[in-house]
């Protein structure tokens, strides 16, 4: 029997955009209809992206010490979260971190720095890093995420070889002032426009779980479609202790099934956009991560900016186990698991024990990779 969601998927494939009411219906579908929702959204995902998954890798160039007061962010003004804090990586350090992600199968490297926005000196610093990465790996896309851009900075990044610029709107315009006061929603939209005006691909997404209503989640996604965001990272709130959002956090309704419906809604509203499962996927999707890949077509490999992800080996196994292939990979990356489950000793390394197992499951603050002497999780 053809379901309402099948009919919606067919209408979208036939050229009729999903409406706000359609999106709300997907988001508010009963849990007993989640498989119908996922199956219908998967038709759109397959139509536009086949069986590929784009693998992205984050490099945190400068961590912490941000003057903005975003209540959810571990790097923001007033945050007491026990994260790594360091100033700019050198060009060589940035290249080494990027190469770890490329070796793990990343098609895009995302260079991120904390702060309100870059100075012109910062732009030149990043331009040098991009040049070094492109010289060694010309096939790899580079996405910069440096905060609010001033006039002319996007053009300089484009000249340096940057392919895309990330600046998330994070939430609906009607909810923005509830999560930050040091910049406006319009500031964020302006930066996305400046990136697009310089010919950079727009990467802009949202964070679910910031106290927004269902209608505001829909509002945010409709706005992202109107902005022309080519890549939409969907983050699920990670409640860091020591941040306003973390200290006041109570288990919100980000159940695995709810998260699946949020991703499916994004696919219906923006069927041809890259939908990326971003921060919080291990915490909130849990055992449903594989099913989510049948809706989304992109993930981050390994760790995030200040928090640990599951092991990169497990990320690559997740892709393969669900019948997908890494976009652009001629063969499985060196870290991919292709021989079935590994015994605990092989997964947990030489130290073994519950602490190591917890770290590899994607729990806690990032303590490896950029800003440390330990190898990156890639």
UniProtKB/TrEMBL annotation:
It holds the Pfam family Radical_SAM. [4Fe-4S] cluster binds at residues 66, 70, 73. The keyword Transmembrane does not apply. CDD domains: Radical_SAM (cd01335). GO terms for biological process: biotin biosynthetic process. Residues 51-281 form the Radical SAM core domain. Its cofactor is [4Fe-4S] cluster; [2Fe-2S] cluster. [2Fe-2S] cluster binds at residues 110, 143, 203, 276. Binds 1 [4Fe-4S] cluster. The cluster is coordinated with 3 cysteines and an exchangeable S-adenosyl-L-methionine. Residues 335-378 are annotated as: Disordered. Its EC number is 2.8.1.6. Keywords: 2Fe-2S, 4Fe-4S, Biotin biosynthesis, Iron, Iron-sulfur, Metal-binding, S-adenosyl-L-methionine, Transferase. InterPro entries: Aldolase_TIM (IPR013785), BATS_dom (IPR010722), Biotin_synth/BioAB (IPR002684), Biotin_synthase (IPR024177), Elp3/MiaA/NifB-like_rSAM (IPR006638), rSAM (IPR007197), rSAM_sf (IPR058240). Pathway: Cofactor biosynthesis; biotin biosynthesis; biotin from 7,8-diaminononanoate: step 2/2. It comes from the Bacteria. GO terms for molecular function: 2 iron, 2 sulfur cluster binding; 4 iron, 4 sulfur cluster binding; biotin synthase activity; iron ion binding. It catalyses: (4R,5S)-dethiobiotin + (sulfur carrier)-SH + 2 reduced [2Fe-2S]-[ferredoxin] + 2 S-adenosyl-L-methionine = (sulfur carrier)-H + biotin + 2 5'-deoxyadenosine + 2 L-methionine + 2 oxidized [2Fe-2S]-[ferredoxin]. Belongs to the radical SAM superfamily. Biotin synthase family. Catalyzes the conversion of dethiobiotin (DTB) to biotin by the insertion of a sulfur atom into dethiobiotin via a radical-based mechanism. This is Biotin synthase. It comes from Kineosphaera limosa NBRC 100340. The gene is bioB.
């Amino acid at each position: 029997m053809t379901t309402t969601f099948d009919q919606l998927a067919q209408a979208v494939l036939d050229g009729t955009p999903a409406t706000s009411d359609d999106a709300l219906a997907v988001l508010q579908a009963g849990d007993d209809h989640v498989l119908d929702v996922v199956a219908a959204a998967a038709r759109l995902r397959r139509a536009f992206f086949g069986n590929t998954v784009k693998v992205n890798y984050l490099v945190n160039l400068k961590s912490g010490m941000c003057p903005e007061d975003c209540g959810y962010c571990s790097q923001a003004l007033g945050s007491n979260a026990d994260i790594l804090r360091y100033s700019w990586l050198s060009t060589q350090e940035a290249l080494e971190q990027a190469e770890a992600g490329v070796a793990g199968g990343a098609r895009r490297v995302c260079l991120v720095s904390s702060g309100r926005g870059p100075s012109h000196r910062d732009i030149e610093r990043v331009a040098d890093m991009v040049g070094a990465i492109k010289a060694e790996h010309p096939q790899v896309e580079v996405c910069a995420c440096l905060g609010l851009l001033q006039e002319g900075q996007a053009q300089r990044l484009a000249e340096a070889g940057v392919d895309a610029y990330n600046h998330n709107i994070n939430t609906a315009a009607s909810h923005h002032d509830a999560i930050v006061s040091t910049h406006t929603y319009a500031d964020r939209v302006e930066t996305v426009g400046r990136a697009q005006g310089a010919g950079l691909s727009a990467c802009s997404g949202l964070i679910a779980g910031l106290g927004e209503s269902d209608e505001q989640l829909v509002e945010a996604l409709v706005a992202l479609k109107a902005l022309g965001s080519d890549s939409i990272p969907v983050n699920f709130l990670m409640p860091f202790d020591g941040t306003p959002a973390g200290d006041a956090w109570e288990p919100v309704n980000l159940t695995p099934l709810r998260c699946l419906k949020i991703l499916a809604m994004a696919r219906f509203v923006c069927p041809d956009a890259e939908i990326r499962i971003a921060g919080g996927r291990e915490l909130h999707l849990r055992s449903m991560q594989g099913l989510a890949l049948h809706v989304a077509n992109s993930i981050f490999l390994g760790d995030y900016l200040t928090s640990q992800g599951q092991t990169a080996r497990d990320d690559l196994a997740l892709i393969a186990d669900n019948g997908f292939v890494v976009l652009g990979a001629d063969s499985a990356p060196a870290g991919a698991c292709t021989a079935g489950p590994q015994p605990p000793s092989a997964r947990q390394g030489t130290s073994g024990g519950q602490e190591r197992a917890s770290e590899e499951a994607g729990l806690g603050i990032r303590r490896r990779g950029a800003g440390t002497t330990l190898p990156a999780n890639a």
